[in-house]
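Example 3.2
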Amino acid sequence: MVLSTPMVAARLNQMPLTRWHKRIAVIVGISLFFDLFDIYLSGVLGTVLTSAFHIPKSEQALLLSSAFLGMFIGSIGFNALADRVGRKAAFLGILSTYSVFTFIAAFSPNVSFLIVFRFLAGLGIGALLPLCDVYLSEIFPAHNRGRIMAWTYTLEFCATPVEGFLARALVTTHFLMAGWRWLFVIGSLGAIIVWSLQQILPESPRWLESVGRHQEAERILARFLAEAPHEPANQAPVRDAVEPRRVPLSTLFTPTYAKRTVMLWIFQILQTFGYYGFGTLVPLVLASKGLTITTSLTYAAVSFIGYPIGSLLSVPIVERLERKWIVVGSAFCMAVFGILFGMTTRPALIMLFGFLYTLSSNIFSNGYHIFQAEIYPTSVRATAVGTAYSLSRLMSGLMPFILLPVLHAHGATAMFSVVAGAMVLLMIDVGVLGPKTTGRALEDVNERVIVQDEGPNVGM
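Structure, written as tokens:
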């Protein structure tokens, strides 16, 4: 059915960026800051925890993978829940889950306890990022959706250098308890901060409309308009806006969406090697080069400065270049800089190539997080993105069992050659199968296509 009056989605797309939009971006960015802080805890502290608990090499992979295996389950469960109960309720539940279990993990008496509570924290950690991708994509106007999402992710990625330098400062201290335990306490603070600001967060108007709660969606729109610097110039629907409605999960495998689903599933399996392969294993890679714990943490912290800078560099390009080609180009840079990082033993070059790798990886990350939330209809968007993202969490859990044996047996260059091979396959996957999304309304990318596939009698 094609409507003759503006719908919620059309009006959201036409709306100017308001102060409320910006406050939402900051709150979500803060929550993602602590989420990413938690994701990298075991990796950044890999050598420290190995020493503290006398973990043999055979058990290192289990410690690193425990949180990621929890993320696999949580990403599917919580994001499916978000399509049923709403984005905001799922968001707050996720925050509570990972914060509580991360806090408990700070007091682990042994490695088994730590592994269990890292797994439980992972249930929340793995679900937050794909849900935020969905939520932000549904809140922000089409013409600057990518730019404001990139700013949000830049705030998130400040967590990595902050964590790196905090680890460098705290691991050698002992105030009431070992310094590394304080990092877990810090990582658990996200829920306290965001819960105190939760009244600012609205439910997604697109989701409300998709489940028939039109009056609530209209109230939220009215609040946005009240803070707009001026009324939208054109209140007509964006192109041929299509009335949102429930669609079955099998939609992901219809002729229209099957190619996108296959592309995204392959992508999520492969991107793990490039993105998390560096962030979680770099201290162990540096230790394999003969560096001490303190020195390896210093080099890692300097390398991690590239994360927020790369995210910041993505801001001016995500609305100018096609998202899929941003992903392809940055994946190529990750392949090259990874091999160079693995080959070198000179301190200056280790930090330089590490910095360039993380810079490229966050242009890559911002591009794909915006992209993956744009290619499915509203009623199944969170489930679709969460399910695909869960594959990356599963692969992140398996990745240490794949890459660490290569690192221990053949060295860093061989390990990053495996990573580079995964990036080449990823480039082919996205380049060939990925749709174009930059600057397009979500309904133009998705719901309009469903109606075209089903024919002119839909809704009659």
